[in-house]
Design the sequence.
DNA sequence: ATACTATTGGCAATTCATTGTCAATAGCGG
DNA sequence: CCGCTATTGACAATGAATTGCCAATAGTAT
């Protein structure tokens, strides 16, 4: 039978779409639980995996942290991340420095790069 | 009683000092086993933790990988890393791009940053 | 050389994120 | 409104990295 449009899935999608930043499974669970009381962590994992399979969201990997997820259409645009060391939230940074090619050792070939800025977000100053 | 100077600890320190790049526990075990046959993984964990406590080595965290370790005196010098997507080794990059401050969102304060370049190392071209 | 004990290494146990299982629940077509 | 079954959620189970435990080993002071 066809997909069903459930309260839980709506809450999870809404959380991811309205956050404006990459969310961990725990963060998704916390936010979506407001719209879907009693939401199970198991369900968040299930829905996140389905959204990944469907290509709707993409993983954001930050060193030393569990994976986070953001909308694929945002992830598709090259960007980087800022992690607040106080509240542990991760924010998008839609800019990219120049001159990275100069860092590459002789004989090496760079195909991609990731940058994570660390510090305090505006709310945690 | 005082510290003892064992073959295993020597082999582990030598591996870390001569590698010239951050090593994972597995890599340390593989390299040090040449000097200390039968070296147990348990011992590598123990010695690595002691070296961390003593401030002799420092962790290097790379997205989606297990922790690696390098000499603290090298880690103290600001630098970045290059991860080869074929052999999975991580190399030091002793340079840093300018203009990162421009990436910081308004109201945020950046205290540090990490950059990981991805691609092929000279041996894996 | 001897005795003392720091260190080692095999294996079990832990930790933590993630997944399997399955009975109960709740969309949705008819 | 009914019935079918996709979905949910509690719990157990898994996987992978790390640590606890403890008898055996091996530095080192005397």
Sequence:
């Amino acid at each position: 039978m066809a997909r069903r449009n459930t309260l839980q899935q709506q809450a999870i999608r809404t959380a991811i779409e309205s956050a404006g930043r990459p969310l961990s499974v725990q963060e998704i669970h916390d936010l979506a639980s407001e719209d879907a009381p009693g939401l199970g962590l198991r369900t968040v994992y299930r829905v996140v995996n389905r959204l990944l399979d469907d290509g709707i969201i993409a993983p954001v990997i930050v060193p030393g942290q569990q994976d986070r997820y953001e909308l694929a259409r945002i992830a598709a645009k090259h960007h980087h991340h800022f992690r607040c060391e106080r509240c542990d939230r991760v924010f998008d940074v839609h800019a990219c420095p120049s001159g990275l090619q100069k860092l590459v050792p002789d004989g090496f070939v760079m195909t991609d790069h990731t940058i994570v800025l660390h510090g305090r977000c505006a709310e945690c100053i």
Observations:
- Residues 50 and 56 of chain A are 9 Å apart (CA to CA).
- Helices of chain A lie at 7-19, 25-35, 41-53, 72-75.
- The radius of gyration of chain A is 17 Å.
- Strands of chain A lie at 23-24, 57-60, 68-71, 80-84, 90-93, 109-120.
